Amino acid sequence: MTGGAVTHREGTVSRETVQGQGPPQLLVSRETRARDAVRLRSRTRKLSESRRERACGLLPTIDATEHPYIRVTCTDGEKRAAWHGVGFCGHVWSCPVCSARIRAERAARVVAAVRGIGGRWCMLTITVRHAQGMALERLYKGLTTSWRRTRQGGRIQRVWTSRVRASVRATEVTHGQNGWHPHLHVLLATDGFTRSERRALWKRYRRMVREELGDACLPLEGVAMHWSKGFEADSTDARWLASYVSKFSCEVSGVAKDRAGGATPWEVADRASRGDHGALRLWSEYVSTTRGRRAVELDDRAAAAADDYLERQREKNDEASEGKSDDGHIEAQEVEVKRDELRSLRLYERKRPTIMWDVLHAAEVWGEQGVRALIAVAQLSTGTGPPAVVTWYARAG
Predict the structure, then answer these.
(1) 177-211 pLDDT, tens per residue?
(2) In sequence order, what are the residues at sequence separation of 6 or more whose Cβ sits closer than 8 angstroms to the Cβ of residue 280?
(3) Nearest C-alpha neighbor of 44 from the set 268, 257, 378
(4) pTM of the prediction?
(5) What is the DSSP letter of 9?
(6) Sign of CA dihedral 239, 245, 247, 251
(7) Cβ–Cβ < 8 Å for 47, 269
(8) Considering only CA atoms, which of 61, 63, 177, 192 is closest in space to residue 124?
(9) First-residue to last-residue Cα distance in the chain
């Protein structure tokens, strides 16, 4: 969170906003973000070495004994459609669709942890100096190791134990004119550190970076470690900041630029999928470096508080729903999509990259009739429909 502004796909958010002056106005709709994520996935799947990622959202699950289906739920007048019985890769770093889904779930857990623990919080952002040509693997490992060693040392460990009630850490990676830029966003449940304690934390962190990465990556004071203004857990900013930590750089709409005029991984992926060889090398490096690493981590105290808070919320929701009619509260509709129909959609994705989202949107707006119409289009376009219909279509064309 260094610099004067944070650039999102939705626009520019000032440093004061991030520090606790209020959430930004989101200008990109949920539908647009979801559609763009599906469109990008249709291209990035071709770049992946993972069979699971190449087939994400296209194949029935192995143990499915019945056909996949689309489930449409309506809560308080808002409809949401989702695929069931279809396999997803679950790659939070490299699949735009799974990234958005997983990060949204983790954002809910982070918000629950903040609410559950309560009190005062702040956000600490940490990075290292970096330059063009430096390997992401080395920078990423050096940053995370330096931070871990910082908290484990003598006085700092004692201060951390006494000052921090819980913490949440998220890792962000962007690429700009100075090469790869990995950094950590850390939410801390704390009433604050004294000036001398912050100074001691900074000095130890700087020493650890020198030992791990050398003088070339030695962080600059006032740039590589930034403290946000504190905020209360029950404030509007708490919910936004908790979500921000979990979901930063996961949205695809607008293909965001970072603060230094660089790119988020999704823009790198977008360029790579269009044949940019330099971007393809960067994307491969990014995927190999982040594979198997956690994007968002809650410590034990934060995780326990999140579980407890979410359980209490579920109990409240169950109690609130008892005795209520089904009128507009929670409804569900299921639309079966047979395996051969799913195959038609899978083949049609080559011509219409957003088809898997289009079907969900049709289910939300027009119900089963809309889904059937799009499946028919896919079958006719790919020649995979019922023989009589395909023959008629061929003659008519």
Answers:
(1) 999 999 999 999 999 999 999 999 999 999 999 99
(2) 47, 272
(3) 268
(4) 0.84
(5) T
(6) positive
(7) yes
(8) 192
(9) 57
